[in-house]
């Protein structure tokens, strides 16, 4: 992951000189030098609580990744249609989007621990409903509840912000994002192992390859409930959080001289919608296509998606190296072109593509274009925020991404049921082309903003 993405989220941390000032501010507050015991507290990290945060994040993202292979067969078994598949995928994002802001408020009003406990209870109940659902309506309700309880990413980031020293925060944000990606894109590998577990039924409980992901996460969240109670502690406010105000005042003269280019911000938001929307279309119909059109088993489908996720994780971790040679604008363009190549090949009406071609193009989008392009867009967006509420604008960025997942997932299900799978990829091609046009018009502004950033960092 490009560490600059997270670095820009730390207010005004632009140069070595300013980082030195921040380090001094961590040791000094309102002119009062801290004692040695307080200095030791600054370097202390409660790793036990931090590992619990990673566990909660992993379980929340697994609520998407672990169901990718089995969601369509299970929905079909209960009488669901292809159009309902889009709604099924979108409702998870609806629940998550609706609960993100309230949960953040509650974590400030009460405690992070209380919110984590509530989230694990909500997810456990949602997964239980998923496994015992007698009809489609209950199944859809279960995904809303799971989405509502899995909106923990902002809370996890709040813990990292409060519990880590200012100058180590970028590294820990990187760890948290890696855990998030593993839960979403790599854990589908576990479907193969779950499919090998014995099948049994008792009363209203059925354990088989289609319900095993739900039962697994039901048990895992119950265990997490007790782990949070026993081992998680809310972080005490770090001294760096107090010094941030002092540090911001010292740097306010810099920020007041710069205003963001709103054309760049608008273009970045549009590109964010493109990347998140196209990946939502693949998330919606990729596993049903493998199962229905290519007759791949649920276990093998999960294995394929998980392996593509591993490749994506490798690209994700290589971005720090790539960013030494390519800027954010170049990486964004590369992501868009790979997105276009992966979707265009599947949209051309030349008969049914071979399974190898389908997986290859899915890999271009899922494993390469999305990790590179989406990360570069986020990095670019965060870097051009000057003299504006950074948290508010980043919240808009995330909210639009969730909204794109909802709209494009429903669109994919509807287009697939009406016009076949090629209509879904044709829609994606149209939106990617529009995004490339937007990028082309905004490229000059992108370049000027990045040059200004470089001059500011010198």
UniProtKB/TrEMBL annotation:
The chain crosses the membrane at residues 50-72, 84-105, 112-130, 136-155, 175-194, 214-232, 302-322, 329-348, 354-381, 393-417, 423-446. Its main location: membrane. GO terms for molecular function: transmembrane transporter activity. InterPro entries: MFS, MFS_dom, MFS_Domain-Containing_Protein, MFS_trans_sf, Tet-R_TetA/multi-R_MdtG-like. It is a multi-pass membrane protein. Keywords: Membrane, Transmembrane, Transmembrane helix, Transport. Residues 49-446 form the Major facilitator superfamily (MFS) profile domain. It is found in: Endomembrane system. GO terms for cellular component: endomembrane system. This is Major facilitator superfamily (MFS) profile domain-containing protein. It comes from Galdieria partita.
């Amino acid at each position: 992951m490009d560490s600059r993405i997270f670095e820009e989220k730390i207010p005004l941390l632009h140069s070595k000189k300013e980082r030195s000032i921040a380090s001094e501010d961590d040791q000094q507050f309102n002119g009062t030098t801290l004692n040695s015991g307080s200095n030791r507290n600054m370097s202390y990290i409660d790793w036990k609580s931090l590992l619990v945060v990673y566990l909660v994040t992993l379980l929340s993202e697994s609520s998407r990744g672990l169901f990718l292979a089995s969601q369509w067969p299970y929905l079909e078994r209960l009488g669901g249609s292809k159009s309902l598949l889009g709604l099924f995928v979108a409702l998870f994002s609806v629940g998550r989007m609706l609960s993100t802001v309230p949960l953040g408020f509650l974590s400030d009003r009460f405690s992070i621990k209380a919110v984590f406990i509530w989230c694990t209870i909500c997810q456990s109940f949602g997964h239980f409903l998923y496994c015992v659902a007698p009809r489609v309506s209950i199944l859809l309700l279960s995904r809303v509840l799971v989405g509502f309880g899995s909106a923990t990413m902002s809370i996890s980031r709040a813990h990292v912000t409060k519990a880590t020293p200012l100058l180590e925060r970028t590294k820990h944000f990187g760890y948290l994002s890696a855990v998030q990606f593993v839960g979403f894109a790599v854990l589908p590998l576990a479907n193969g192992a779950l499919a090998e577990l014995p099948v049994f039924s008792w009363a209203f409980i059925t354990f088989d390859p289609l319900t095993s992901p739900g039962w697994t996460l039901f048990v895992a969240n119950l265990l997490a409930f007790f782990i949070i109670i026993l081992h998680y502690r809310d972080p005490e406010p770090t001294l760096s959080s107090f010094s941030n105000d002092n540090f911001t005042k010292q740097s306010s003269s810099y920020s007041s001289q710069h205003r963001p280019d709103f054309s760049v911000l608008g273009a970045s938001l549009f590109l964010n919608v493109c990347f998140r929307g196209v990946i939502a279309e693949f998330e919606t119909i990729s596993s049903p296509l493998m199962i229905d059109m290519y007759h791949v088993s649920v276990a093998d489908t999960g294995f394929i998606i998980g392996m593509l996720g591993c490749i994506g994780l490798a690209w994700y971790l290589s971005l720090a190296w790539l960013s030494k040679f390519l800027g954010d604008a170049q990486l964004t363009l590369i992501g868009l072109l790979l997105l276009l190549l992966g979707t265009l090949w599947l949209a051309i009406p030349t008969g049914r593509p071979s399974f190898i071609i389908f997986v290859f193009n899915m890999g271009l989008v899922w494993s390469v274009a999305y990790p590179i392009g989406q990360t570069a867009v986020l990095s670019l967006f965060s870097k051009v925020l000057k003299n504006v509420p950074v948290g508010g604008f980043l919240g808009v960025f995330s909210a639009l991404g969730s909204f794109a997942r909802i709209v494009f997932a429903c669109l994919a299900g509807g287009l697939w049921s009406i016009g076949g799978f090629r209509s879904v990829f044709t829609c994606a091609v149209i939106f990617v082309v529009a995004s490339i046009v937007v990028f082309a018009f905004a490229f000059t502004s992108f370049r000027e903003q990045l040059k200004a950033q470089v001059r500011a960092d010198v």
